[in-house]
Amino acid sequence: MRINMDTKKTKILKNTKVDIKIRLAALWLVFMLLYIYTDFYKLYMPEKIQGIMSGVIDGFEVTQMSLLLIAVVTIIPACMIYLSLILRDRANRLLNIILGIFHLIIGVINLIGSTWHFYIFYGILLVVVAILIILNAWNWPTEIENDN
């Protein structure tokens, strides 16, 4: 009779490194979703829908130009999801830093004077994600290239 004396095997989860381009694309996706959630929940604020129907959003008159400006600013995260995956490294890094800083500034400006807790919560998250985008792009992994 043979007794099985095998030692107990432990499974160790393998942590694989995520490519910088995928990390940046994921951060831009989170950023875009935060924009969408924020705008959705703003509709529940008292008199917000009446203001929109009267042609005023956040104290600004709704015009073709104002809506175009909002569209351009808010489409950037959606475009950056794709661009972060396909652009060449140097252009990718630079564009992520520039647009991350741009959205960081917008996020800080939007937080000024905010009193609604949900808006402050989402605003802080937007600022944090913008900072993460900038830091990830800034610290883009490099290799030493031999000139042989």
Folded structure, characterized:
Strand 1 and strand 2 form a beta hairpin. The chain has about 150 residues and is mainly α. The mean pLDDT is about 95. Helix content is about 65%, strand content about 5%. The chain contains 5 helices and 2 strands; from the N terminus they run ααββααα.
Mean pLDDT: 93
Structural class: mainly alpha
* Strand line-up across the major sheet: 1-2
Low-confidence stretches: none
Q: Report on the biggest sheet.
A: 2 strands, antiparallel
Count the DSSP helices. 5
Strand content: under 5%
- Give the termini distance in whole angstroms: 65 Å
Rg from Cα = 22 Å
Order of helices and strands: HHEEHHH
User: What spatial form do the alpha-carbon principal axes imply?
Assistant: flat
Number of strand segments = 2
Q: Helix amount, in percent?
A: 55-70%
What characteristics describe this protein?
two-stranded antiparallel ribbon, 66% helix, mainly alpha, 148 residues
